[in-house]
């Protein structure tokens, strides 16, 4: 299994997809750091992550229309004068963006094998389905974890260099947040791996995973409205979970959110495995 993981690492560093993913990640970091505002993909649930918005006397005197009329340069200059605002923590709270980077990893590691009929050749060379499946799952999770930490430190030092220490936390703070966000990120990796084994072909995989986050969030919003669920119940949706973990979550919330992540990993791993077991490999 270790040799298969090494082979996948060798292959992915020579794949164009991983560099496209890296460029996408750098673009998201650059925009968030330069505009002094985290960008986010998907539907955000309204939660308080405990980070606050900082203090800026000039902006406090402006109404909504005046703020909206500011140019990008003017807004940036005002934000750089803000005190008590940690931009890096706010960007980490929007780490659901990494899901779209992770798609490339799962696509190269699993879906491309099915589309290129490489799976049949691998399984015919004395490699069991169990070993193949586990090696792919571990590989996707490892690379997603590496990309997560790479994103954190590139963002942290980029913010520090471009915006100064006024809007930056200390390096241990962002490291701690990233470690806390690791279980939800591994849950996202398991979702993508499971889907890759279920849908197999690249076209089918992309058609499902690209809109998946937004569709799930819209469905959850609709169910919450229909069933009149309390807002607290929505705190275990993955994007909201990442935002909460970037703030000051309670110990009980951390444990409960990790339990939800464990269930997601088990469900999608099992779904992917059973689909792979029953599949006729061509």
Protein described:
- The protein is mostly helical.
- The protein is 72% helix and 0% strand.
- α2 packs parallel to α9, α7 (98-115) packs parallel to α10 and α10 packs antiparallel against α12.
- The longest helix is centred in the middle third of the chain and has 35 residues, at 129-163.
- The radius of gyration is 21 Å and the shape is globular.
- The two termini are 22 Å apart.
- The mean pLDDT is 86.
Find the count of extended strands (DSSP E, 2+ residues): 0
- For the record, give the distance between the C-alpha atoms at the N and C termini, rounded to a whole number: 22 Å
Q: Give the overall silhouette.
A: globular
Major sheet, described briefly? none
Order of helices and strands: HHHHHHHHHHHHH
- Calculate the mean pLDDT score and round it: 86
Task: Please estimate the helix content.
Answer: over 70%
Radius of gyration: 21 Å
Query: Low-confidence spans: pLDDT under 50, at least 5 residues?
Result: none
Structural class: mainly alpha
Given the structure, what is the number of helices?
13
What percent strand? Answer: under 5%
